[in-house]
TrEMBL record:
It is found in: Membrane. It comes from Dillenia turbinata. Residues 350-376 are annotated as: Disordered. InterPro entries: Kinase-like_dom_sf (IPR011009), LRK10/LRL21-25-like (IPR045874), Prot_kinase_dom (IPR000719), Protein_kinase_ATP_BS (IPR017441), Ser/Thr_kinase_AS (IPR008271). SMART domains: S_TKc. GO terms for cellular component: membrane. This is Protein kinase domain. Its main location: membrane. It is a single-pass type I membrane protein.
Length: 376
């Protein structure tokens, strides 16, 4: 029998799927804008590029893009906004070239990428090197990340090509992503909210240092402001903060990225998707609920690859921080700066968070948090 928690989860997921279907089918832009001619859209994007992109990013012609990718010979992956190919610049540097889908004619995702990461510089944010815009032909040129996306390293079962990472590496990846998000939220002149944090959008360099990528859904807001208005949900099912779908839960803000981060780190810890519809027992369908119960009762969570106390401590820190990040009420979640401090601090200093609920937040105050300590 499915628990009430799982039922609430299914209800929310159903709502998200319906809303995202409407968005994909009808678009999120006003009807008048959708009716713009290709020429009007091109003028709009060109005006934007003069303001944001032309001074700091190199502009490539489409023929140059074809040449650097060897006519799109080596495909690295496929995303919601287009395909990514491996390329090589004239100076010998390898690059990743994202060729955007023609169906996204309004140019929103293209402009989001240029405006958001075109002026950023951080070790945990992927570097945008240039772009191509020739009417319907649009591409973005990024630094090349040899190890690809985080996704293939945490969901692989017995994949010899992409073995499960050790706990020190997983911990450093979680910390690096937190630092990248902290920079987006606090280190830029304009606050950048990503809205699509998930393993697929975290890239790894040759040393497995993580970099946040894919800013097609990003929103920019003044640095002093944190609350933003949104006309429709954006993000990926399984990582979307509850307030993005149901505004009665709370206001959409940088705390929405915190929620997505927490859900992603739980998947890193568990080595599985947070929702497992094939689980034998209903209690194991939703991993955050399952892991919370185990930690609350000081039971062994049975995480793979833990061979010593150091691994155990890193794993427990990642679990507790994640459970704080996925609190239903945004005001109960930490900021990304606090997440960095929590990960770098001692396990003994972390408190057991209240149980996160996907339905509306409880009316009564949450139970008093207790300090979590390693069992011997």
């Amino acid at each position: 029998m499915i628990t009430s928690f799982a039922a609430a989860f299914v209800s929310v997921i159903g709502t998200v799927m319906a809303l995202l279907y409407v968005r994909r089918k009808f678009g999120s832009v006003p009807l008048l804008f959708c009716r713009r001619s290709h020429m009007e859209i091109s003028r709009h994007v060109e005006s934007f590029l003069r303001s944001y992109g032309s001074q700091i990013l190199r502009r490539y012609s489409y023929s140059e893009v074809r040449k650097m990718t060897n006519s799109f010979k080596s495909k690295l992956g496929q995303g919601g906004y287009g395909s990514v190919y491996k390329g090589k610049l004239l100076d010998g540097r390898h690059v990743a070239v994202k060729v955007l889908s023609k169906s996204k004619g309004d140019g929103e995702e293209f402009m989001n990428e240029v405006a958001s990461i075109g002026r950023t510089s951080h070790v945990n944010i992927v570097t945008l090197l240039g772009y191509c815009f020739e009417g319907q032909k649009r591409a973005l040129i990024y630094e090349f990340m040899p190890n690809g996306s985080l996704e293939k390293f945490i969901f692989a079962e017995e994949d010899l090509e992409h073995p499960k990472l050790d706990w020190e590496t997983q911990y450093q990846i979680a910390l690096g992503i937190a630092r990248g998000l902290e920079y987006l939220h606090r280190g830029c002149n304009t606050r950048i909210l990503h809205f699509d944090i998930k393993p697929h959008n975290i890239l790894l360099d040759e040393d497995f240092h993580p970099k946040v990528s894919d800013f097609g859904l990003a929103k920019l807001c003044p640095k002093k402001e944190s609350i933003i208005s949104m006309s429709d949900p954006r993000g990926t099912i399984g990582y979307i903060a509850p307030e993005v779908v149901c505004r009665t839960i709370g206001r959409v803000s940088h705390k929405s990225d915190v929620y997505s981060y927490g859900m992603m780190v739980l998947e890193i810890v568990g080595g599985r998707k947070n929702v497992n519809t094939g689980a034998d027992r209903s209690s194991e369908i939703y991993f955050p609920n399952w892991i919370y119960k185990r930690v609350q009762l000081f039971e062994d969570p049975g995480l793979r690859g833990i061979s010593n106390e150091e691994d155990k401590e890193k794993a427990m820190k990642m679990v507790l921080v994640s459970l704080w990040c996925i609190q239903t009420d945004p005001s109960n979640r930490p900021t990304m700066s606090q997440v960095v401090d929590m990960l770098q601090g001692s396990l003994e200093s972390l408190q057991m968070p209240p149980r996160p609920y996907l339905s509306s937040p409880p009316r009564s105050p949450p139970e008093s948090p207790t300090t979590y300590q390693l069992s011997s």
